Each structure stands twice: as C-alpha cells, then as structure tokens.
UniProtKB/TrEMBL annotation:
InterPro entries: Ac_CoA_lig (IPR011904), ACAS_N (IPR032387), AMP-bd_C (IPR025110), AMP-bd_C_sf (IPR045851), AMP-binding_CS (IPR020845), AMP-dep_synth/lig_dom (IPR000873), ANL_N_sf (IPR042099). It comes from Nitrospira defluvii. One of its GO terms (molecular function) is acetate-CoA ligase activity. It comes from the Bacteria. CDD domains: ACS. Residues 116-504 form the AMP-dependent synthetase/ligase domain. This is Acetate--CoA ligase.
Length: 660
C-alpha cells in the first residue's frame, strides 16, 4: 500500500490544495447575462474537465453503467468484495417479489466495516470525525478512538441486558455521541431508531411505542441559534406513555446539568466509565435489521423503514465512494442531521465505511453569521461539501460577499439532496464556489437507503437535473400501468429491479411495504413525479402523493391534519404544500372550526402552538385559513389537489366527483 499522510486533516488539506490547483472543470458556455435561469433552461450542459474525468473512480459512466446493468448481481457482488465479511454469501440476490434478500447466507457487521477495518490498518490514527459544536467547541476522534468509544458503549448496552434484535431509540442533537450510540447498537445487533431531536413529545412517544424500545438515549439540551433547547423534559413527557422503556441514558452537555432519577435514568459518562474498550463485533446474518427510521407517508402514522446490515452497507459504501469521488485525503462535510436518512447514510455509514475524514458541525448555516459554513470549509480544508437546496437558497439571500470572504479552493465536489434544486440556486452555488466544482444533485429516499439517481463527477451536468441512475440501478419514468413514457413526458419515477440498500419492510407493517411494489406493476414506485429528457436525464418535479418537503424535511399532510383536529376548536382540517422561495414548500392549512369558535389572531396562534406541541417546529403551518367547508369527493375524501390548484390560481381540473 502507498503511505498516505494520516495524522491530521490539515496536512491532507495542504496536499489536496497543491495537487488540485489549476482548472479541472470547464463550462462549455458561460452564461453571459444575469438572466442565468433563462439561459440554463435552454439546456446548457456543463462538461467535466479532462482532469476530473481522469482522476475519477468512474471516468466513463456510460460504459460502467452498461456493464453494471448487463449483470447487476455480478456488479453488486463485486462491490461487496471490497468490504469485509465473516462468511461469504452463497447467492448475491434472492428475489421473491417484492421481498429481497441480498448476500444470502453471508455474515457481516456494518460497524466492523466502519471501524475495525480501518482501526486494524494504518488508518488507526487517521481522523474519523471532526466535530464542531454550535458554540465553537471542537472534538476530534481518530478511527482508533472512535472504535474504543463505540466498544465501551456496546459493552454498556450489554450490561443493561440489551441483546440482538432489541430496539433502542436515540433522541440526540448533532453530537458525536449520536454516532457512537448508533455504531454501538450495530456492533451487537441491536436495532437503532433515531428520532430527529426537533420532534415533540407525542411524536417521539409514538415512535418509541411502535418500536417498543427498551432504552432511550438522549441529552439534557440541544443548541439552536444560540438558544438552549431542553430535550430531557421532552423525553420525560414521552416515556410516560411508553411502558417498554426500562432506562433512559442522558448525555449532559449543559454546565448546570439536569437532575437524574436513579435507577431509571443514567448519566452517559457514568454509563461508559467502567466499561472495557474491547468488544468484538457480532457476526450477523447479512439480512439482520440495522435500524428503523420513521418517515412520513400518506397516512397520519409514520412508517418505520427497516434497513439491514449487508445490503445497506454495500449501497452506502459504493455510492459515497463513486458519487463524491472520495479519495484518501478528502475532508468530507455533509450538513444533514443524523435524525434523517441523509445523516444515517452520508454522515455516518457511507463515509465511515470508506475510512473518510468527516466534518460534523452542529448548528444552522447562518448562525452566528451567514459565513458559518464557508468558514468551516476554509478552516478545515473541506474538499467535499454535501448540502441542501433550502440551505443554498437561504445563503443566496445573504449575498455573494459572504462566500467571497473565505478561501474555498480546497473544495472539489459538491452535493445537493432532499428536494429539487432550481437552476438559479444551482448556478449560484456553482459560481460562488469557483465555477469549477461539479454539483452532484442526488435523488433518493429514506426507503431507498442510498442514492439512486445522481451524476458522478465525470458526467456532464444539466443544472436542475439529477441526471442518470447510479450504477446497477434501472430507473424509468412510466404511466400508471408501468409503460415507459416518451422523452420529456411527465410521469411516475420507478425503479425496475431490486438493489442492495433498499428497505426490507415497514416495521410491523409488511402490507405497507408491499404497496411500494404493487402500485405500478413490476416496479418500485417512489412517489415522485419526473420526466426524462432526450438524453435520458431525469428531472424530478416533486411528490405525486400527499407528502410535502418543507426545507427538505419530509412531512405528511395527514400528520399535520390529525394534529390540527386534535385541537379543541377544530372540526376538520386539510393541509397542502405551497411553493416557498427558500424552503421549497411551505405548509398551508385550511380549517373548519367547531361551533362556538371564532376566527381570530389568538385562535390561529393557538392552532400553531398546538401543532408545535404535537409534532414539532418543522410541521407548524406557515398559513392557516379558517374556511366554512372543504372540497370533498362523494365518498368524503378531502380533495387537496383542488385546494392547492385554487390556492395557486391554477385550473382545478376534473372536479366531477366533487360533493360541494
Ligand atoms: C434523501 C431524502 C425523499 C423525497 C423524494 C423526493 C425528494 C430527495 C431529491 C428529491 C428532487 C433530489 N428528493 N432528493 N427531489 N431532487 N435530489 O431526502 O429522503 O426524506 O425520505 O425524502 O425527497 O421527493 O421522494 P426523504
């Protein structure tokens, strides 16, 4: 093996900067007026430079894609061989529509591949995680240290009697303990269920109940734009209705600390203190559940998406490597929260499987000022930066002077995820970072586990398009019957064959899983509307169902509606997503009041407060209209599409089934 400097990321950064000087990425045509959007819509293509192509893991996408599709099992099997397995598989795939088993008969452990594989090599002293708190606090973990910490935590879980198949709910802010807890569970076959720390007590409780978690791991507080957000009281309120919870472990960050009630409540530091730093990773069948992650669907009840050790490991490993063209000396920065799937796959598992150096930063992009992320990029020499369209649009509002203040020359590859990125935001992001770093617009879902449609750095880009399917993935745009549509016709985005990182089921609800594969014949229906252009580039246009994306956060209209109708004044409610300049979509609610209640500012505020209390900040409607009636079908279903069309001043379409 070639020796690579592994001590501190700053060393790596200098090398990176030196190696990467000079133009690598050339625009075929530079927009010549300010009307960039108009120009981009003409179909401009941005070609990768010869140098980017030459350096890329996959220099020729077309050829690699064709080969991968000709024999997907050979392709995925080949990828899997780059990782460590305790026993090999007898078959790559067992497909019993719609049930998949990947790497049949093999045993492995994703945490082993994230940690031991590196800690047992020269990477032992390579930086795994640089964590920066909102208050500027910095903590650095090498692979060796992370492994020891995870082992202590795994032993502590065992000491509480947790064993393979048990569930642990993790409700933490973006701190390193989050990663430690996830990997510790994985190490011994315990299933983690991370709940985003912005969810309120009832939302947390329903997720703990569904998973029947034996343990909750939380913190005293989180920080948000300088404010202290108490988390422990939320857990206290939630666990009252969760009889499965035996213990609550609390990471104490605040100097004052919260009082803990023994024996049920345990301090994190005390919990780990006596534990050994050695704990062998459990060899697990490849199909062993790794985690449950709850996500919104079209009903009020969130779905517990289940991912497994083997296939998920293979999918997140190879997408991180190829999509971001990850190299040994990169510093990788993904801004997601580990509470969402992007945090699971592209802060924790994918980058660690690759032995990368990860920057993990708590806080918002504009606190304490809009230079926050640019400053982190310059300070730590970030070379890969994976962010969201909402964040880009937010930073755009503060102007180009902010990014201009910082040295962003270490950046090499950029990423976007969570919602469609409009060409204007794409172009801005591209320009302020130097007009030579390819933007990977990655399309995927909680259910897909890993990126499915995306450019690679060697692929020509069209701003606003997620381009083409990842290797081994057959994606298409079809009508309701599953027929491929001609170029540029809008239809449903589908995946035609199983892939390793796909979800295996919906926890305790296999029927809900089957819906994904039974809605359109012979394929996986993603729930997105899409068109494919003449070059096969895919343009995702939003959801086809009642799921909305507010600042990239996935929210079901039904969840917000059921929160609203649980307010004493509300008889009925309907919720839609409405275009919003920065957040992509905003929540608008239409509410019918019960008799005796009057429309007033106070009432509207009390409705918003109620949703905040029931679900959390991200689900609070921006606008609430009090209405006398709602459009319904004769069978009583609310026609949200009609409300939305009216709201946007569009044609309401076919309303022959409308009741009133
Ligand atoms: C990873 C994640 C999934 C939904 C998905 C789609 C939207 C995600 C996108 C995108 C257009 C992209 N979405 N990435 N739309 N372009 N690059 O966001 O997972 O929270 O489950 O949401 O997000 O609508 O169906 P999740």
């Amino acid at each position: 093996r070639v020796a690579v400097p592994s001590s501190h990321p700053h060393n790596a950064v200098q090398n990176t900067a030196a190696r990467r000087s000079g133009p690598r990425f050339v625009e075929v045509m530079r927009p010549m007026s300010d009307k960039i959007d108009t120009l981009l819509k003409e179909g401009r293509v941005i070609q990768p430079s010869a140098r980017t192509k030459a350096a890329a893991h996959i220099p020729d996408y077309d050829q690699a894609y064709k080969a991968s599709i000709a024999d997907p099992e050979a392709f995925w099997g080949g990828v899997a061989k780059e990782l460590d397995w305790f026993t090999p598989w007898t078959r790559v795939l067992e497909w019993n529509y719609p049930w998949a088993k990947w790497f049949v008969g093999a045993t492995c452990n994703i945490a082993y591949n994230c940690l031991d594989r590196h800690a047992n090599s020269w990477r032992r002293n390579k930086v795994a995680i640089i964590w920066v708190g909102e208050n500027g606090e910095e903590r650095i973990f090498t692979y060796g240290e992370l492994l020891r910490q995870v082992n202590r935590c795994a032993n502590a879980l065992k000491a509480l009697g947790l064993k393979q198949g048990d569930r642990v709910t993790i409700y933490l802010p973006k701190i390193p303990e989050q990663v430690v807890a996830m990997l510790a569970c994985a190490r011994i076959g315990v299933i983690h269920s991370v709940v985003y720390s912005g969810f309120s007590a009832p939302a947390l409780a329903s997720r703990i109940q569904d998973a029947e978690a034996r343990l909750v791991i939380t913190a005293d507080v989180g920080y948000d734009r300088g404010k202290t957000i108490p988390l422990k009281p939320v857990v206290d309120a939630a666990v009252q209705s969760c009889p499965s919870v035996e213990k609550v472990v609390v990471v104490r960050r605040d100097a004052l600390g919260v009082a803990l009630t023994a024996p049920k409540e345990i301090d994190w530091t005390d919990w780990l203190k006596e534990q050994s730093a050695v704990c062998a990773a459990e060899p697990l069948d490849a199909e062993t559940p790794l985690y449950i992650l709850y996500t919104s669907g079209t009903t009020g009840k969130p779905k517990g998406v289940v991912h497994v050790h083997g296939g998920y490991m293979v999918g997140t490993y190879i997408t991180t490597k190829y999509v971001f063209d990850l190299k040994e000396d990169d510093v990788y920065f993904c801004v997601a929260d580990p509470g969402w799937v992007t945090g699971h796959s592209y802060i924790v598992y994918g980058p660690l499987l690759n032995g990368a150096t990860i920057l993990m930063a708590e806080g918002k992009p504009d606190y304490p000022n809009p230079g926050r992320w640019w400053d982190l990029i310059a300070r730590y020499g970030v070379s890969i930066f994976y962010t969201t369209p909402t964040a880009v649009r937010l930073l755009m509002k503060y102007g180009e002077d902010w990014p201009k203040k910082y040295d962003l020359s270490t950046l090499r590859v950029l990423g976007s995820v969570g919602e469609p990125i409009n060409p204007e935001a794409w172009e801005w992001f591209y320009r302020v970072t130097g007009s030579d770093k390819p933007i990977m617009d990655t399309w995927w879902q909680t259910e897909t586990g890993a990126i499915l449609v995306t450019p690679l750095p060697s692929v020509p880009l069209k701003p606003g398009s997620a381009t083409r399917p990842f290797l081994g993935i057959e994606a298409d745009v079809v009508d309701k019957e599953g027929h491929s549509l001609p170029s540029n016709a809008g239809g449903f985005a589908v995946i035609k064959k199983p892939w390793p990182a796909m979800m295996r089921t919906i926890y305790k609800d296999p029927d809900r899983y089957k819906v994904y594969w039974n809605t359109i014949p012979n394929c996986y229906t993603a729930g997105d509307v899409c068109r494919k252009d003449q070059d096969g580039y895919m343009w995702f246009m939003g959801r086809a169902d009642d799921v909305i994306k507010v600042a990239g956060n996935r929210i079901g209209t039904a969840e917000v509606e059921s929160a609203l109708v649980s307010h004493e004044a509300v008889a009925e409610a309907a919720v839609i997503g409405k275009p919003h300049r920065t957040a992509g979509e905003a929540i608008k609610a239409f509410v019918i009041l019960k008799q005796g209640y009057q429309d007033s500012k106070e009432l509207i505020q009390s409705l918003k407060d109620h949703v905040l209390k029931e679900l959390g900040k991200i689900a609070v409607p921006q606008e609430i209209d009090i209405v006398p009636s709602l459009p319904k079908t004769r069978s009583g279903k609310i026609m949200r599409r009609v409300l939305k069309a009216k709201e946007l001043g569009q044609d309401v379409g076919d309303i022959s089934t409308i009741e009133d």
